[in-house]
Protein backbone atom coordinates (compact mmCIF):
# COMPACT_ATOMS: atom_id res chain seq x y z
CA UNK A 1 0.00 0.00 0.00
CA UNK A 2 2.76 2.46 0.95
CA UNK A 3 4.57 1.74 -2.31
CA UNK A 4 1.37 2.52 -4.20
CA UNK A 5 0.83 5.79 -2.32
CA UNK A 6 4.42 6.81 -2.93
CA UNK A 7 4.11 6.01 -6.62
CA UNK A 8 0.88 8.02 -6.91
CA UNK A 9 2.35 11.02 -5.11
CA UNK A 10 5.47 10.76 -7.28
CA UNK A 11 3.32 10.71 -10.44
CA UNK A 12 1.30 13.68 -9.23
CA UNK A 13 4.48 15.61 -8.43
CA UNK A 14 5.95 14.70 -11.82
CA UNK A 15 2.75 15.73 -13.66
CA UNK A 16 2.63 18.97 -11.74
CA UNK A 17 6.30 19.53 -12.54
CA UNK A 18 5.64 19.11 -16.26
CA UNK A 19 2.70 21.53 -16.03
CA UNK A 20 4.94 24.05 -14.23
CA UNK A 21 7.56 23.55 -16.94
CA UNK A 22 5.06 24.98 -19.41
CA UNK A 23 5.47 28.31 -17.61
CA UNK A 24 8.08 30.44 -19.38
CA UNK A 25 10.52 32.60 -17.45
CA UNK A 26 12.27 35.67 -18.75
CA UNK A 27 13.85 38.91 -17.63
CA UNK A 28 12.44 42.27 -18.76
CA UNK A 29 14.09 45.69 -18.42
CA UNK A 30 11.58 47.97 -16.71
CA UNK A 31 12.01 51.41 -15.20
CA UNK A 32 15.76 50.98 -14.72
CA UNK A 33 15.70 47.50 -13.18
CA UNK A 34 15.69 43.91 -14.40
CA UNK A 35 12.39 42.18 -13.59
CA UNK A 36 11.78 38.43 -13.59
CA UNK A 37 8.48 37.43 -15.19
CA UNK A 38 6.72 34.06 -15.33
CA UNK A 39 4.09 33.64 -18.03
CA UNK A 40 1.97 31.13 -19.88
CA UNK A 41 -0.74 31.19 -22.53
CA UNK A 42 -1.97 33.44 -25.33
CA UNK A 43 -4.81 35.93 -25.46
CA UNK A 44 -5.80 38.94 -23.34
CA UNK A 45 -3.22 39.58 -20.60
CA UNK A 46 -4.02 38.85 -16.95
CA UNK A 47 -1.39 40.49 -14.76
CA UNK A 48 -0.90 38.92 -11.30
CA UNK A 49 0.72 40.87 -8.44
CA UNK A 50 1.90 38.99 -5.33
CA UNK A 51 2.15 40.18 -1.74
CA UNK A 52 4.48 39.69 1.26
CA UNK A 53 6.30 37.38 1.75
CA UNK A 54 5.55 35.89 -1.63
CA UNK A 55 6.71 35.52 -5.23
CA UNK A 56 5.32 34.97 -8.74
CA UNK A 57 4.97 31.36 -7.50
CA UNK A 58 1.99 32.35 -5.33
CA UNK A 59 -0.03 32.47 -8.57
CA UNK A 60 1.02 29.02 -9.85
CA UNK A 61 -2.55 27.67 -9.78
CA UNK A 62 -4.02 30.77 -11.42
CA UNK A 63 -1.36 30.83 -14.18
CA UNK A 64 -2.17 27.24 -15.16
CA UNK A 65 -5.93 27.78 -14.95
CA UNK A 66 -6.25 31.11 -16.80
CA UNK A 67 -3.73 30.13 -19.49
CA UNK A 68 -5.89 27.08 -20.24
CA UNK A 69 -8.95 29.33 -20.68
CA UNK A 70 -7.57 31.54 -23.44
CA UNK A 71 -5.62 34.14 -21.48
CA UNK A 72 -1.97 35.14 -21.29
CA UNK A 73 -1.13 34.88 -17.58
CA UNK A 74 1.79 37.09 -16.53
CA UNK A 75 3.20 37.07 -12.97
CA UNK A 76 6.33 39.07 -12.10
CA UNK A 77 8.47 38.94 -9.01
CA UNK A 78 7.89 42.50 -7.81
CA UNK A 79 10.81 44.85 -7.17
CA UNK A 80 12.94 43.52 -4.29
CA UNK A 81 11.62 39.95 -4.56
CA UNK A 82 12.90 36.68 -5.99
CA UNK A 83 14.80 37.04 -9.25
CA UNK A 84 13.88 40.71 -9.77
CA UNK A 85 16.43 43.37 -8.87
CA UNK A 86 16.35 44.90 -5.41
CA UNK A 87 17.57 48.53 -5.38
CA UNK A 88 19.37 49.34 -2.11
CA UNK A 89 17.63 52.58 -1.06
CA UNK A 90 14.41 52.31 0.95
CA UNK A 91 12.70 55.10 -1.00
CA UNK A 92 13.13 53.07 -4.21
CA UNK A 93 10.13 51.04 -3.00
CA UNK A 94 7.60 53.87 -2.97
CA UNK A 95 4.33 53.60 -4.91
CA UNK A 96 5.56 55.65 -7.90
CA UNK A 97 8.57 53.41 -8.50
CA UNK A 98 6.60 50.17 -8.24
CA UNK A 99 3.70 51.37 -10.41
CA UNK A 100 6.36 52.64 -12.83
CA UNK A 101 7.73 49.09 -13.04
CA UNK A 102 4.26 47.77 -13.87
CA UNK A 103 3.46 50.38 -16.53
CA UNK A 104 6.79 49.56 -18.22
CA UNK A 105 6.01 45.84 -17.93
CA UNK A 106 2.55 46.28 -19.50
CA UNK A 107 4.07 48.32 -22.33
CA UNK A 108 6.70 45.61 -22.89
CA UNK A 109 3.91 43.05 -23.36
CA UNK A 110 2.66 45.00 -26.38
CA UNK A 111 -0.82 45.64 -24.98
CA UNK A 112 -2.71 48.78 -24.01
CA UNK A 113 -4.59 47.24 -21.07
CA UNK A 114 -4.54 44.23 -18.77
CA UNK A 115 -6.91 42.43 -16.47
CA UNK A 116 -5.39 42.92 -13.01
CA UNK A 117 -5.44 40.32 -10.24
CA UNK A 118 -3.59 41.15 -7.03
CA UNK A 119 -3.22 40.05 -3.41
CA UNK A 120 -1.92 41.62 -0.17
CA UNK A 121 0.80 44.21 -0.98
CA UNK A 122 0.21 43.44 -4.63
CA UNK A 123 -3.38 44.55 -4.02
CA UNK A 124 -2.23 47.87 -2.53
CA UNK A 125 0.01 48.42 -5.56
CA UNK A 126 -2.96 47.39 -7.73
CA UNK A 127 -5.06 50.17 -6.24
CA UNK A 128 -2.25 52.66 -6.95
CA UNK A 129 -2.07 51.44 -10.55
CA UNK A 130 -5.85 51.95 -10.89
CA UNK A 131 -5.47 55.38 -9.30
CA UNK A 132 -2.53 56.64 -11.37
CA UNK A 133 -3.15 54.85 -14.68
CA UNK A 134 -6.75 53.60 -14.93
CA UNK A 135 -6.27 53.53 -18.71
CA UNK A 136 -4.03 50.47 -18.21
CA UNK A 137 -6.59 48.32 -16.34
CA UNK A 138 -9.69 46.74 -17.95
CA UNK A 139 -10.96 45.26 -14.70
CA UNK A 140 -9.49 44.42 -11.29
CA UNK A 141 -9.95 41.27 -9.19
CA UNK A 142 -8.62 42.32 -5.78
CA UNK A 143 -7.80 39.81 -3.06
CA UNK A 144 -7.52 40.55 0.68
CA UNK A 145 -6.75 44.30 0.82
CA UNK A 146 -9.53 46.73 -0.14
CA UNK A 147 -8.89 50.29 -1.25
CA UNK A 148 -7.26 52.11 1.68
CA UNK A 149 -8.81 55.56 1.72
CA UNK A 150 -6.20 58.27 2.37
CA UNK A 151 -6.80 60.14 5.63
CA UNK A 152 -5.45 63.67 5.00
CA UNK A 153 -5.08 64.27 8.74
CA UNK A 154 -2.72 61.47 9.77
CA UNK A 155 0.09 59.56 8.11
CA UNK A 156 -0.61 55.88 7.50
CA UNK A 157 1.82 54.30 9.98
CA UNK A 158 1.04 56.96 12.59
CA UNK A 159 -2.64 56.06 12.26
CA UNK A 160 -1.91 52.35 12.68
CA UNK A 161 0.27 53.08 15.72
CA UNK A 162 -2.50 55.19 17.27
CA UNK A 163 -4.96 52.35 16.73
CA UNK A 164 -2.83 49.36 17.77
CA UNK A 165 0.40 50.53 19.42
CA UNK A 166 4.08 49.92 18.70
CA UNK A 167 3.85 46.10 18.54
CA UNK A 168 1.50 46.07 15.54
CA UNK A 169 3.45 44.30 12.81
CA UNK A 170 3.53 47.26 10.39
CA UNK A 171 5.02 49.44 13.15
CA UNK A 172 7.53 46.72 13.99
CA UNK A 173 8.64 46.56 10.34
CA UNK A 174 9.60 50.25 10.16
CA UNK A 175 13.17 50.40 11.50
CA UNK A 176 15.70 49.37 8.80
CA UNK A 177 17.58 46.17 9.66
CA UNK A 178 15.82 45.49 12.95
CA UNK A 179 13.16 43.01 11.75
CA UNK A 180 15.65 41.42 9.34
CA UNK A 181 17.93 40.60 12.29
CA UNK A 182 15.06 39.16 14.32
CA UNK A 183 13.90 37.05 11.37
CA UNK A 184 17.45 35.80 10.88
CA UNK A 185 17.46 34.55 14.49
CA UNK A 186 14.55 32.17 13.83
CA UNK A 187 15.52 31.39 10.21
CA UNK A 188 14.01 31.90 6.76
CA UNK A 189 12.08 28.62 6.76
CA UNK A 190 10.45 29.36 10.12
CA UNK A 191 9.41 32.89 9.08
CA UNK A 192 7.84 31.76 5.81
CA UNK A 193 6.02 28.79 7.29
CA UNK A 194 4.88 30.92 10.22
CA UNK A 195 3.34 33.61 8.04
CA UNK A 196 1.96 31.44 5.23
CA UNK A 197 0.16 29.01 7.58
CA UNK A 198 -1.32 31.56 9.98
CA UNK A 199 -5.07 31.44 10.50
CA UNK A 200 -5.10 33.91 13.39
CA UNK A 201 -7.70 36.62 12.91
CA UNK A 202 -7.38 40.23 13.98
CA UNK A 203 -4.34 42.47 13.93
CA UNK A 204 -0.95 40.67 14.06
CA UNK A 205 1.28 41.76 16.95
CA UNK A 206 4.96 40.89 17.30
CA UNK A 207 6.50 41.12 20.80
CA UNK A 208 9.12 43.84 20.86
CA UNK A 209 12.72 42.80 20.38
CA UNK A 210 12.05 39.42 18.72
CA UNK A 211 10.15 37.71 15.94
CA UNK A 212 9.13 35.15 18.56
CA UNK A 213 6.14 33.06 17.52
CA UNK A 214 5.49 35.77 14.95
CA UNK A 215 2.17 35.86 13.12
CA UNK A 216 1.18 32.33 14.07
CA UNK A 217 1.55 31.36 17.74
CA UNK A 218 -0.30 28.09 17.00
CA UNK A 219 2.03 26.99 14.20
CA UNK A 220 1.78 23.25 13.53
CA UNK A 221 4.66 20.97 12.55
CA UNK A 222 2.68 19.76 9.53
CA UNK A 223 1.76 21.90 6.54
CA UNK A 224 -1.82 22.55 5.39
CA UNK A 225 -3.00 20.55 2.36
CA UNK A 226 -2.64 23.54 0.01
CA UNK A 227 1.05 24.14 0.82
CA UNK A 228 3.44 21.27 0.03
CA UNK A 229 6.99 20.78 1.26
CA UNK A 230 8.09 21.52 -2.32
CA UNK A 231 6.13 24.78 -2.34
CA UNK A 232 7.67 25.91 0.93
CA UNK A 233 11.13 24.86 -0.26
CA UNK A 234 10.76 27.04 -3.36
CA UNK A 235 9.91 30.12 -1.28
CA UNK A 236 12.75 29.39 1.13
CA UNK A 237 15.28 28.95 -1.69
CA UNK A 238 14.48 32.44 -3.03
CA UNK A 239 14.27 34.27 0.30
CA UNK A 240 17.50 32.62 1.49
CA UNK A 241 19.18 34.46 -1.39
CA UNK A 242 17.41 37.81 -1.17
CA UNK A 243 16.52 38.15 2.49
CA UNK A 244 13.34 40.00 3.46
CA UNK A 245 14.56 43.60 3.12
CA UNK A 246 13.00 44.22 -0.29
CA UNK A 247 9.58 43.15 0.93
CA UNK A 248 9.88 45.01 4.23
CA UNK A 249 10.82 48.21 2.38
CA UNK A 250 7.28 48.40 0.98
CA UNK A 251 6.01 48.84 4.57
CA UNK A 252 8.75 51.41 5.22
CA UNK A 253 7.25 53.57 2.47
CA UNK A 254 3.71 53.70 3.86
CA UNK A 255 4.26 57.22 5.24
CA UNK A 256 6.13 58.42 2.14
CA UNK A 257 3.36 56.99 -0.07
CA UNK A 258 0.90 58.96 2.07
CA UNK A 259 2.84 62.16 1.30
CA UNK A 260 3.23 61.39 -2.41
CA UNK A 261 -0.48 60.65 -2.91
CA UNK A 262 -1.74 63.91 -1.39
CA UNK A 263 -2.97 65.08 -4.83
CA UNK A 264 -5.28 62.04 -5.00
CA UNK A 265 -7.02 62.67 -1.66
CA UNK A 266 -10.72 61.86 -2.07
CA UNK A 267 -10.21 60.20 -5.45
CA UNK A 268 -12.65 57.58 -6.69
CA UNK A 269 -11.37 54.43 -8.40
CA UNK A 270 -13.48 54.04 -11.55
CA UNK A 271 -12.14 50.65 -12.75
CA UNK A 272 -14.62 47.71 -12.49
CA UNK A 273 -13.69 45.70 -9.38
CA UNK A 274 -14.48 42.35 -7.79
CA UNK A 275 -13.18 41.98 -4.21
CA UNK A 276 -12.55 38.59 -2.57
CA UNK A 277 -11.35 37.92 0.97
CA UNK A 278 -11.33 35.05 3.45
CA UNK A 279 -13.48 35.38 6.56
CA UNK A 280 -10.38 34.49 8.64
CA UNK A 281 -8.10 36.98 6.84
CA UNK A 282 -6.08 39.06 9.33
CA UNK A 283 -6.56 42.13 7.10
CA UNK A 284 -10.33 41.71 6.81
CA UNK A 285 -10.57 41.30 10.60
CA UNK A 286 -8.41 44.39 11.40
CA UNK A 287 -8.35 48.17 10.93
CA UNK A 288 -12.16 48.52 11.01
CA UNK A 289 -12.17 47.17 7.45
CA UNK A 290 -15.31 45.03 7.81
CA UNK A 291 -17.30 48.20 8.49
CA UNK A 292 -15.68 49.95 5.54
CA UNK A 293 -16.18 47.02 3.13
CA UNK A 294 -19.79 46.26 4.03
CA UNK A 295 -21.01 49.66 5.30
CA UNK A 296 -20.91 51.62 2.07
CA UNK A 297 -17.53 53.32 2.32
CA UNK A 298 -15.80 50.93 -0.09
CA UNK A 299 -18.57 51.30 -2.71
CA UNK A 300 -18.41 55.09 -2.32
CA UNK A 301 -14.67 55.12 -3.06
CA UNK A 302 -14.92 52.44 -5.77
CA UNK A 303 -18.28 53.09 -7.50
CA UNK A 304 -17.78 50.24 -9.98
CA UNK A 305 -17.25 47.70 -7.20
CA UNK A 306 -19.44 44.94 -8.63
CA UNK A 307 -19.11 42.23 -6.00
CA UNK A 308 -17.67 41.48 -2.56
CA UNK A 309 -17.02 37.80 -1.81
CA UNK A 310 -16.19 36.59 1.72
CA UNK A 311 -14.95 32.98 1.61
CA UNK A 312 -16.06 30.82 4.53
CA UNK A 313 -13.27 29.19 6.53
CA UNK A 314 -10.52 30.72 4.37
CA UNK A 315 -7.58 32.75 5.73
CA UNK A 316 -5.25 35.37 4.23
CA UNK A 317 -3.56 33.47 1.39
CA UNK A 318 -6.81 32.68 -0.40
CA UNK A 319 -5.26 32.50 -3.87
CA UNK A 320 -3.34 29.44 -2.66
CA UNK A 321 -5.67 27.99 -0.01
CA UNK A 322 -8.83 28.17 -2.13
CA UNK A 323 -7.13 28.19 -5.54
CA UNK A 324 -9.90 26.56 -7.64
CA UNK A 325 -12.57 28.82 -6.19
CA UNK A 326 -10.40 31.89 -6.84
CA UNK A 327 -9.71 30.70 -10.42
CA UNK A 328 -13.46 30.46 -11.05
CA UNK A 329 -14.12 33.89 -9.53
CA UNK A 330 -11.44 35.49 -11.71
CA UNK A 331 -12.68 33.86 -14.91
CA UNK A 332 -16.37 34.59 -14.22
CA UNK A 333 -15.56 38.27 -13.74
CA UNK A 334 -13.06 38.99 -16.53
CA UNK A 335 -14.87 37.02 -19.25
CA UNK A 336 -17.59 39.72 -19.20
CA UNK A 337 -15.23 42.36 -20.59
Provide a quick synopsis of the model:
The protein has 337 residues and is α/β, with parallel strands linked by helices. The protein has helices spanning 2-21, 60-67, 95-108, 121-132, 156-164, 169-172, 178-186, 188-196, 229-242, 245-251, 254-260, 289-294, 297-301, 318-321, 323-334; strands at residues 24-30, 33-40, 45-49, 72-76, 114-119, 137-143, 273-278, 305-311. Residues 44-150 form the AB hydrolase-1 domain.
Question: Would you spell out the secondary-structure blueprint of this structure?
Answer:
Blueprint: H1 2-21, E1 24-30, E2 33-40, E3 45-49, H2 60-67, E4 72-76, H3 95-108, E5 114-119, H4 121-132, E6 137-143, H5 156-164, H6 169-172, H7 178-186, H8 188-196, H9 229-242, H10 245-251, H11 254-260, E7 273-278, H12 289-294, H13 297-301, E8 305-311, H14 318-321, H15 323-334
Parallel strand pairs: 3-4, 3-5, 5-6, 6-7, 7-8
Antiparallel strand pairs: 1-2, 2-4
